Amino acid sequence: MDTGSVTLLREMLASTGWVERTRELGLALRATRSPGGLMVVGTPEEEPWHLTAHLGDEARLSGLPQLAPTLVRWAPAPDAPAHLRVGLERIGRARRGETLFVVAEEAAPETLLERVSDARRTGTTILALDGGDTELAALAHDALTIPERAPFSFDGAQHLVSMAAGEAGRRPGLRDRLARLLERVSGPRITD
Fold this sequence. Notes:
This protein is an alpha/beta fold. About 45% of the residues lie in helices and about 10% in strands.
């Protein structure tokens, strides 16, 4: 998806609340304090290569080095280039000021959930983009769940979030966060 397509998708979703939610998650990604401190991990079946590449582009284009992601892989080849050799042990070294972004359309395996829980206990910020994994969402400080009947695909959501991460914007205030909490508790607003 190119920038024009993502912009068109945003225009189509303008009245739904989805654009705001992807912006909130994009802003949360920017809170990472240092380059390499944003770790992106998926499931053994689906590693988020494409999203990682887009976040790297956004980091470069927006001048935000802390947005440059580290792709964490389940089984990196030992002879792979250094940036593709980062394994799950990196999550075990995660600390306060770093962010672990879990991207999983299907349910996250128990092994990943355990590592996410451990990282959370060390002070790592946990963000998630998921397809309805309640266990993962419960571990995350902020999660965006893309239901099957969403007006866009899971891939489209990744493009919306990565574009939002590179944009200048304000962090949501207390009122915005309370409104989002109320929406999570009461369910999304469905328009006819």
